[in-house]
Design a protein that fits this description.
The chain has a single domain, classed as P-loop containing nucleotide triphosphate hydrolases (Rossmann fold), CATH 3.40.50.300. Helices cover about 35% and strands about 20% of the residues. It is built from nine helices and ten strands. The strands form two sheets. The protein has a six-stranded mixed sheet, with helices on both faces. β1 and β2 form a beta hairpin. The N terminus is likely disordered. Bound molecules: adenosine-5'-triphosphate and magnesium ion (MG).
Amino acid sequence: MNLLAATAAKDVAIDLLPALREAGAAAPGPTAAIGGLSIRSLSKSHQLKGEAMEVLQGIDLEIQPGEFVALVGASGCGKTTLLRILLGLERDFTGTVEQDGAAITGPGLERGIVFQEHRLLPWLTVEQNVAFGLGGRVKDKQKVRARVRHYLDLVGLYGFDAAYPAQLSGGMAQRAAIARALINQPRVLLLDEPLGALDALTRLRMQKELEEIWRREKVTALLVTHDIEEAIYLADRVIVLSPRPGRIKREIPVPLSRPRDRDSSGFIDIKDQLLAEFQLQAERHFYYTI
Ligand SMILES: Nc1ncnc2c1ncn2[C@@H]1O[C@H](COP(=O)(O)OP(=O)(O)OP(=O)(O)O)[C@@H](O)[C@H]1O
Ligand SMILES: [Mg+2]
């Protein structure tokens, strides 16, 4: 590990886009149109002090293969619970949840997840952490190495394979977590406030990078965020959930060309619509997170 390089990269955020362009030549390539999600009449309760508390109520949502959907809503309205159901971690719910027509009954390689905190194992290097995502399924060490390198390149961590998580900046650690989520080439990427812990400038940069990764990997993305601008910048469609129990209150399409201009009238118009959902319309210039 080149500590000097690591320190420099902490101070000067890496511009990932050239690395992504280079990585493109070796990308596994787009697959057929798979990665569609179908959620029908989904309701979910959690047990709290022995009583059932309804967290999600009657969610109906169809997400097309390759679509980028953002989910916004007040804290506690069930966003993480919904992602956990889609990942296959929760089974005690009513309604149906399918990926490409098959019921989601447990975690599977077709879905990857990134959380707000990177959850890298501190005693493993970046390379080992990303390879960990493979779960030992690929036996050939050369193949593992090549695949890990490909995804480290894709997320702009070229040269940091031997670093430990403690030697990375917050943004770099999140990139490693994204690489770990992509290593199995899932068709669905679930993102639970993946940029929430980053400083404002790194976050803007990472939004750009996330869009590029989504575009290159042709993956279906479902992003939970409290940042309204982030939702509009990234998503084809923004879903607004009501406060608990979470119900779909509104769907707002984002028919703007990419990369999006945050100062464009179209962007500002959608932002106003979303802020109105959270009764923040008068404070547009001051607040954009909910
Ligand atoms: N395992 C659990 N047992 C009991 N209650 C739970 C459990 N997990 C979540 N809850 C409750 O379910 C509700 C929804 O939680 P969830 O984490 O899905 O919200 P969220 O929309 O992701 O919130 P935030 O924006 O703060 O992350 C909360 O009231 C929470 O206390
Ligand atoms: Mg949450």
